[in-house]
Design brief:
Order of helices and strands: EHEHEHEHHEHHHEHHEHEH
Bound molecules: phosphoenolpyruvate
Strand order of the largest sheet: 1-2-3-4-5-6-7-8
Distance between the termini: 16 Å
Structural class: alpha/beta
Length: about 250
């Protein structure tokens, strides 16, 4: 039985004080809600405070990005070992904003995935098509290519046993337009079936999250779909109340 994960991607938002308030608000409200795996992804400069405030709680944390290199002269980058020092359990790799705004291609995303996986972090592999690609009827081609970049790695499918996939149609991120539950379900099912060709058991146990304008009002219908195991939440993760409401939709 797969557990739901509700993960909040804060992106480049917040202040030191605001981050503290949000972390405490989430921690406090999530305490009794133990049937969901909670995770937050604050900007990396707030990870020290995150570790301080969330240690011992049922809310895990991670970073929004990581370097594909272990150490050295890579100005502005943060390594997996640094993230581990701050208690990170997860890291996002291949978020569409990284792919589209910072030109991260499948090769870089796969290299980051390996770095994280080798270090014992749980990579959340983000995949998803642009509006143009959907309109060209290329959704499955694009998403399966992004997943294949990881499956092709040495021990690729085994690595997915300790990873999460997030399907985030780019046209739904931050736009207020959500994929219908059926649109999301058919892509989630296709991802699971692609992985199943390599290892049915790993595919069956893999948590696949949906992301793209999930709000308290639409979460329940999305999370009711059989291959959707929770959400990667952007805008609505910036309000503790909304974030927690979204998580509650998984369990009731
Ligand atoms: C995201 O950035 O991963 C995301 C899903 O954002 P939003 O919920 O704001 O669409």
């Amino acid at each position: 039985m797969r557990r739901y994960i509700v993960a909040g991607n804060w992106k480049m938002n917040g202040t030191r004080e605001g981050a503290k308030e949000l972390l405490l608000g989430i921690q406090d409200r999530a305490e009794e809600l133990t049937d969901v795996d909670w995770a937050v992804f604050p900007p990396s400069v707030f990870l020290e405070e995150t570790e301080r405030l969330l240690t011992g709680s049922n809310v895990a944390w991670g970073a929004q990005n990581v370097s594909d290199k272990p150490v050295g002269a890579f100005t502005g980058e943060i390594s997996v070992s640094m993230l581990k020092e701050f208690g990170c359990e997860y890291v996002l790799v291949g978020h569409s904003e990284r792919r589209n705004l910072y030109s991260e291609d499948d090769v870089i995303v796969a290299a980051k995935f390996v770095e994280a996986s080798d270090a014992g972090l749980i990579p959340i592999l983000c995949v998803g098509e642009t509006l143009r690609e959907r309109e060209q009827d290329r959704t499955f081609e694009v998403v399966s290519r992004q997943v294949a970049a990881v499956l092709r790695l040495d021990n690729g499918v085994e690595r997915l046993a300790n990873a999460v996939v997030a399907y985030e149609p780019v046209w739904a991120i931050g736009t207020g337009i959500t994929a219908t539950p059926e649109q999301a379900q058919e892509v989630h099912q296709a991802i699971r079936s692609q992985i199943s060709n390599y290892d049915a058991n790993i595919a069956q146990n893999l948590q696949i999250l949906y992301g793209g304008s999930v709000k308290p009002g639409n979460a329940r219908a999305i999370f009711a779909m059989p291959d959707i195991d929770g959400g990667l939440i952007g805008g609505a993760a910036l309000k503790a109340g909304d974030f927690i409401e979204i998580g509650k939709s998984c369990i009731s």
